[in-house]
Amino acid sequence: MKLQKVFARPASLAEISFHFCPGCHHGIVHRLLGEAIDTYGIREKTIGVPGVGCCVFLYDYLDIDVCEAPHGRAPAVATGFKRVLPRNVVFTYQGDGDLGAIGMSEVVHTANRGENITVIFVNNGVYGMTGGQMAPTTLLGQQTTTSAFGRDFHRDGYPIRMTEMLATLEGVAFAARVTLHNAAGVKKARKAVMKAFEMQLNNMGFTFVEFISACPTNWRLSPEEATARIDDEVLPYYPLGIYKERKSPDYL
Q1: What would the CATH number be for the domain defined by 26-216+227-245?
Q2: Considering Cα of 153, then 157, then 163, then 167, what sign does the dihedral take?
Q3: SS3 78
Q4: 93: which of 25, 123, 151, 166 is 20 to 30 A away, CA to CA?
Q5: CB-neighbour burial class of residue 250 (10 A; exposed 0-12, middle 13-18, buried 19+)
Q6: Quick one: residue 110, left, alpha or beta (phi over 0 = left, psi -120 to 50 = alpha)?
């Protein structure tokens, strides 16, 4: 019987050794993006815009055009690319500190304008690259290098649910939260990325996919413990699902 290959590296995914920490989910996001780019045959016209932080290494992992943006400004840079090159597929790749703190204004107004781009948002609840400081998405009680006794809402406010907030804006065509910590979650995450890119190709407006991701190093947990924490602590506060999906491009 002749064997048939059913699983292979996406052509858009560069052949490079994975350098992220053990248990980090950035590699899964890279693969899902590569699969979507290959599926739609858009590698030669795709532009990725990563923000500052762990996301910046996108230029090493995907064989596409990539332009790094200043901290928090990826949606603004992506807007510029899309308006000048409207036939290209443009996406940002951002972490929770980059998007939810210094970049909050950019992503909200980009979404509200209905810019026809895709925002890929990796939420691991901390500033991963710079030392594990508290981020806008850090959970209440969570200890970080800047919240040694745990996040306190009296002092620090509440964790921000970006997907739910952006879904209320008229310009948003698609908003979903997915997880990467188990096989079922990755399967649904793949569908969300495919849908977001499909809607951009159909000129349906702003699309947003939030990925719940682990950061074992800054959580001070093993990869196995980090996976359990997502089930026990993270998902109860950040429920998964599709929060908005426009059915037609005729929304004006």
Answers
A1: 3.40.50.970
A2: positive
A3: helix
A4: 151
A5: exposed
A6: alpha
